[in-house]
Design a protein that fits this description.
single chain; about 190 residues; mainly alpha; f41 fragment of flagellin, N-terminal domain; two-stranded antiparallel ribbon; 3 helices; 4 strands; about 55% helix; rod-shaped
Length: about 190
C-alpha cells in the first residue's frame, strides 16, 4: 500500500483558506464601516473605541439634558416676566393710590385691581410647570452640575419673594397696604 501526499496542493489549499479569511474580514470591515469589529482585530484599540463611544453617548445625553434645561428656564422666564409686569403694575397702582386727590372709592377700586393682580401672581406661581414639575411654587430643586456627585440646589422660595434681574434691581419686593394712611407700600 502506498500513500501519496501532494504538498503543493496542500500549500495552495492553505493559502486559499487564508485569503478567504482575510477577504471575509475586509468585507466585514467595509460593510460595517469600522476598522475594529471585535477584540480579535485589535483588543487595545477596541477598548479605546468603546470608551470613546461611551463618552460620546454620555455627551449626547448631556446635550439633551442641557436643551431640556434651556426649555425649563425659558418656561420659568416667561412666567417671571409675566409676574414682573404684574408687580410693576402693582407698584404703579400703589403710587397712584398714594395721591391725596383720590377718594375712598378710587382707592377701593385701585385696591380691587391690586388684589386681582395678587391672585393672578399666585395662580402663575402655582400653575407654572415644566414636564409636570412645578417651577415657581417653592418646591423646585435640581442638580445643576456636570459632575453627578455634586449637587447645587436651585430653588424659588415663593411668590412673596420673587427675585428678578434685568429692568429691576435684584432683590425681594413686598407690596403691603397701610390701612391707617390708605397707602400701598412697595419695598
Amino acid at each position: 500500500m502506498r500513500i501519496n501526499h501532494n504538498i503543493q496542493a496542500l500549500n495552495a489549499y492553505r493559502n486559499l483558506a487564508v485569503n478567504q479569511s482575510n477577504t471575509a474580514k475586509n468585507l466585514e470591515k467595509l460593510s460595517s464601516g469600522l476598522r475594529i469589529n471585535r477584540a480579535a482585530d485589535d483588543a487595545a484599540g477596541l477598548a479605546i473605541s468603546e470608551k470613546m463611544r461611551s463618552q460620546i453617548r454620555g455627551l449626547e445625553v448631556a446635550e439633551r439634558n442641557a436643551l431640556d434645561a434651556i426649555s425649563l428656564i425659558q418656561t420659568a422666564e416667561g412666567a417671571l416676566s409675566s409676574v414682573h409686569s404684574m408687580l410693576q403694575r402693582m407698584r404703579e397702582l400703589a403710587v397712584q393710590a398714594s395721591n391725596d386727590t383720590n377718594t375712598a372709592n378710587d382707592r377701593a377700586a385701585l385696591d380691587q385691581e391690586i388684589q386681582q393682580l395678587k391672585t393672578e401672581i399666585t395662580r402663575v406661581a402655582t400653575s407654572t410647570d415644566f414636564n409636570k414639575t412645578a417651577l415657581l411654587d417653592g418646591t423646585f430643586g435640581t442638580k445643576v452640575d456636570q459632575d453627578s456627585s455634586k449637587t447645587t440646589a436651585l430653588s424659588v422660595t415663593g411668590v412673596a419673594n420673587i427675585t428678578t434681574g434685568g429692568g429691576l434691581k435684584a432683590g425681594t419686593y413686598t407690596i403691603s397696604w397701610d390701612g391707617a394712611d390708605n397707602v400701598y407700600n412697595c419695598s
